[in-house]
Design a protein that fits this description.
The structure is a homodimer. By secondary structure, the first copy, chain A, is α+β, with helices and mostly antiparallel strands. The first copy, chain A, has 17 helices and 18 strands.
């Protein structure tokens, strides 16, 4: 493969073809669960260089594993163990190409950090709403390839809904320029949405036109205590009625989830004095005034207390208090890790069924694994939950993890019976490739294979992922 | 073909296989420009029947032209002249299968009239926002197949953004059940968006899960007079800043467009006393109160008058006045028809470029066709315009129409130079099939062909449309 590597170096420059130990960080996934192998890590600086590498890989039949910030959670951005692929790292394609304030769009390269995209929009007085805990590490190309979700989906949609156009390098090394910043364009098949969420298996996203929004004039955060997920669902309906598009966040957190946080991060305090069974974090974003937002929020909480749904509530009276509430939510994952490994599920059901799902699935798990502890939290407004199962008290986490297959089966079978999704946000990658075969119809798998074969007949793009 | 028709009758019943003159209404397009030919019109009553007809068509190699309300404007829903196809009419699949109020979704069959879908949502206290003049005739399956736009896209998006899941009969006569009402679902390729906007060339949409929204508590309509499209763009920016998601309509109308309306529909009165060069219809939808909406609107108009952008404005003080303002907008197409045929363009450019586009293209047309009259109006908030060209005073419309090719070339070349779309809302159908070849890259056409060949290798679905 020396001629291949030499030609790679001729395209991107000596120092941007990494081999040997320099590759380590690119070969291991974010959660440190798997280390793959590769011929080299290649870092093009432009779409043209990426396309030239693509053509070279076609010629030498070298598989390509596209990689952004490598923050994925399903082994989608690391190579497999065979060692015949290259990792194509997009981080040098990191220019903000254009911000069109009047069109509410920006054109960015795939390797831009999400945080930089958000900051550049803010500097232009606008909002790019995609909001993920990994914003400082993940890239917009990865966000689009994985159709990232996060906490702002309720109001603004997933990454898919935030993108108007793409530039893509095809598996044949051609560049498709679909960088159109149009709200209406019915001139043929929707190629854009084929590449979004395809996890780099159909082509390489190199740039995108993103939708921007007005910055809300004011934001309000509130923390409400409730008894059940069903009460939280009812609170969501009330909040939607009063706030409509102003409701930008609605996160459910079980008491056990938050007790893990305060145990491992004692500097984070609960906003309410007494202990309750469930909590909801509400966020309102208003184009009007602080007073107007507060009046909406008071109407929501007032109705909910009248109906006996909310037992207590606190409204953040400063940005610091608001951040403290969000910190509780954002530290749940870290607290879980500190407590010891658990069995995670990234699932969604229709938001009308969340409470029923939790009740039914909790019961099934208690039946099979008595005493197992549920770390349940997530984006109730989207019907999406992090539904994680920890070992019963006194059982070592590693021992409990041996039950992972059986636990997954119970949870995913239940999700399926609620017409839900076994991967709401994180995608399929290599991790859930076998799992989707259990729940998707043969026809759906065949349709996906037809798309794959049509666009990447040599199967060079991110092999072993999704399909 | 007698055995084929006999088997069709066995599937859908004698009276739902129409031949001879009964077919006429199904063979002629909405604007009466073309009448095709077909073996029969077949009207299944269910997805299963539609799939059975699909399998039969595969066996006998009979092409299928899917048809909903047949209100399309690009000859997408009528068969060609060859006469070897059947028209598959979906109008008997007209059940509202389910409304899930807490999930803000409804599941409907493809043949439901858009108006019935909107009414069913309203009866459940919710809004299905897709808003088209043809709501009483068009079907939701057609809306999705054409990715319909309309006047509410600014706030709610196109038909594509309003759909969460689909049921599709493939060209092989299999049923893909993708009727998931999920806000987050990253389990593989986005098959849904492949079928939406594909104009029935890849499969047959038989049912859909639609997104619903809270009904706004109050709506306000205003009518503003301005000098130029550039002033209208500036007004849009001001309105966005003050209203954000509450801005649900923003329509630009040239004075000439509205003078045609008042000429041919003298019962419709202009809301403002003096004559101005451009007008904007603004609509605000607010979840709060009439007072709150009025305060927002006054802030918008106040700023715009301060900046010297708006010369005069009227706010509708009753539902009747609001309707009267919308009637002006909605009668432009009818007024054009009454005045005599003109050359229509359904185009979009980035909304920041609309004024520049109009100025540049108007100048080019005057240069080549001195005195031609522009009927320019449309959804400025989406950058989408109906940019129509009427004969110069004294020239017979039919004579001017002979210049259609040359006029199209000037307009579409200009659209292309602004990185715009030559079909913003109406699609490609048979009408613009040649036209897109001039403006799309070879690669984009090849990618579309690959998708077509992968999903419909026998090319039985709506032949001659799009590709």
């Amino acid at each position: 493969m020396q001629p291949f590597l030499d030609q790679c170096r001729a395209i991107v420059g000596e120092s941007h073809v990494i081999v040997d130990t320099g590759m380590d960080a690119f070969l291991t996934d974010w959660r440190n669960r798997f280390t793959g192998s590769a011929r080299a890590v290649v870092q093009p600086a432009s779409s043209d260089e990426a396309a030239a590498i693509g053509r070279l890989c076609c010629e030498f039949l070298v598989p390509i594993v596209p990689q952004g910030g490598n923050t994925g959670l399903v082994l989608g951005s690391v190579p497999d163990a065979r060692g015949n692929a290259i990792v194509l790292s997009l981080t040098r394609l990191n220019r903000i190409r254009e911000i069109d304030v009047l069109n509410n769009t920006m054109t960015v390269e795939a390797g831009c950090l999400l945080e930089n995209v958000r900051n550049a929009a803010a500097e232009a007085g606008l909002l790019f709403p995609l909001s993920l805990a990994s914003a400082g590490s993940c890239t917009i190309g990865g966000n689009l390839s994985a159709n990232a979700g996060g906490t702002a989906v309720l109001r603004y949609g997933n990454a898919r809904e935030l993108c108007l156009g793409l530039e893509v390098v095809t598996p044949q090394g051609e560049i498709w320029n679909g960088l159109r910043g149009l709200r209406k364009d019915n001139t043929g098949y929707d190629l854009r949405d084929i590449y979004i969420g395809a996890e780099g298996t159909l082509g390489l996203i190199t740039a995108a036109v993103l939708k921007l929004f007005p910055q809300p004039r004011t934001m309000l955060t509130a923390f409400a205590a409730l008894q059940t997920p069903a009460a939280a669902q009812r609170l969501l309906a009330i909040a939607r009625k009063h706030c409509d598009a102003a409701l930008t966040g609605f996160e459910l957190m079980s008491d056990y989830s938050l007790r893990l946080v305060t145990k491992h991060f004692p500097q984070l305090a609960m906003p309410l004095p007494a202990q309750h069974r469930q909590y909801v974090l509400l966020e309102l974003s208003d184009g009007d005034s602080q007073d107007h937002a507060m009046a909406m929020l008071e109407a929501v909480i007032g109705d909910a207390i009248d109906e006996g749904i909310v037992q207590d509530a606190a409204v953040a009276s400063s940005i610091a208090q608001s951040r403290a509430m969000w910190h509780l939510r954002e530290h749940i994952s870290l607290a879980q890790a500190a407590e010891g490994k658990n069995i995670k599920h990234d699932i969604a059901v229709p938001s009308s069924r969340v409470a029923d799902f939790i009740e039914a699935t909790d019961a099934l798990l208690q039946q099979h694994f008595p005493g197992c502890r549920m770390v349940t939290f997530g984006h109730l407004g989207d019907g999406s939950l992090h539904y994680n199962v920890s070992a019963p008290e006194g059982v070592a986490p590693d021992e409990f993890l041996r039950q992972q297959g059986a636990v997954n089966r119970i949870v995913h079978d239940s999700v399926n019976s609620f017409n839900g999704s076994i991967s709401a946000e994180h995608g399929i990658g290599a991790l859930k490739r076998g799992e989707i075969l259990l729940y998707k119809s043969d026809l759906e798998i065949r349709l996906m294979q037809k798309i794959k074969n049509a666009l990447d007949p040599l199967h060079l793009m991110n092999p072993g992922k999704i399909l």
